[in-house]
Write a structure and sequence with these properties.
Length: 217
């Protein structure tokens, strides 16, 4: 599988990155992805550029990431090393401090210790089917657009049991208005099939999903 290579001393982390807790990844082309991280707020202090996944920023001499700039592609950051804990979608732009990427998240965490590109992001061609129960059972709804409130558009309850990603990458949120826990779901992970809410991420504690949107490239 083609992989990006991080610049600088984190090149040795590319092998552990391949061991992410994901199943059946599809081959992806090289980049373009580029992110610059800083160990102080407002783009101060130590800085480092990456063009691929970094499973542990401490192995690059950082104790934490406190600001960052996404120059190419979409990324997902994680609260803990090894791509674990809360997820934060990082689309192109500047993030001068931690609350810029956690946004209106109800669970503010001032830690970002690992990150990786979202290789399957395709905003123009994205499609997902959500199911009422796990294992793709019950009522289903095919989605190809952003919805700040699934319930306002007719979804019967505030929970989703399972999902199939036909193409692209999506961010699902616990609450309406893109708030609460973030779950980044991708076509090239799990073969696009998320049979149970526990597969959404290591931080998943509930099947509650009330808003959803496509990942911006």
């Amino acid at each position: 599988m083609a992989r990006c290579i991080a610049r600088g001393k984190c090149q040795r982390d590319t092998d552990p990155a391949a061991k992410m807790a994901q199943t059946n990844p599809l081959p992806v082309p090289m980049g373009p992805w580029k992110i610059t991280v800083y160990d102080q707020e407002n783009f101060q202090g130590k800085r480092m550029e990456f063009t691929s996944a970094c499973p542990n920023i401490m192995e690059c001499g950082f104790d934490n990431i406190r600001s960052l700039k996404v120059e190419c592609g979409a990324w997902v950051g994680y609260e803990h090393t090894g791509f674990c804990g809360q997820q934060f979608i990082l689309e192109r732009g500047e993030y001068p401090r931690w609350d810029a990427w956690s946004g209106s998240n109800a669970y503010h965490i001032e830690r970002l210790m690992s990150f990786r590109p979202v290789c399957s992001a395709n905003h123009k061609e994205s499609k997902i089917t959500i199911f009422e129960k796990d294992n793709f059972i019950g009522r289903q709804w095919e989605i190809a657009d952003d919805y700040p409130s699934l319930q306002a558009m007719g979804w019967a309850n505030n929970e989703v049991g399972s999902m199939k990603i036909q193409c692209g990458a999506w961010v699902c949120y616990q609450y309406p208005g893109y708030r609460g826990y973030q779950y980044v779901l991708e076509f090239d992970h799990h073969g696009g099939d998320y049979k149970h809410w526990r597969e959404w991420g290591s931080h998943a504690q509930t099947s509650q999903i009330q808003s959803i949107r496509r990942v911006q490239q």
